[in-house]
Design brief:
The protein has about 90 residues and is an all-alpha fold. It has a single domain (about 5-85), classed as Alpha Horseshoe (Serine Threonine Protein Phosphatase 5, Tetratricopeptide repeat), CATH 1.25.40. It has helices at about 5-20, 25-35, 40-50, 60-65, 70-85. It starts with a helix and ends with a helix.
Length: about 90
């Protein structure tokens, strides 16, 4: 991961505009905004992600999300936790 979380947040905002029913985009927006410190956006994005995927949890991300490198997965989960995912 490049660590450009504000830039990633901007791209993910565009992603959810184009595909509002794509849960992965909402999850990634929540993670990027969480890492960028934009917690209001992160919480709203997580809320939408959970509406689309009610069983979403850190455990689910750890088990099923296809992030190969452990360090990258850890950063992603940190962003989701900042957004409020448990």
């Amino acid at each position: 991961m490049a660590g450009r979380f504000a830039e990633a947040e901007a791209w993910e905002r565009r992603s959810v505009e184009l595909r509002p029913h794509f849960g992965s985009a909402w999850r990634t927006l929540a993670a990027a905004a969480g890492k960028a410190g934009n917690l209001d956006v992160a919480a709203r994005a997580l809320s939408e992600a959970k509406r689309l995927h009610p069983s979403l949890s850190v455990e689910w991300v750890e088990k099923y999300h296809p992030i190969i490198h452990e360090g990258d997965r850890r950063v992603y989960v940190e962003g989701l936790r900042a957004a409020g995912l448990r």
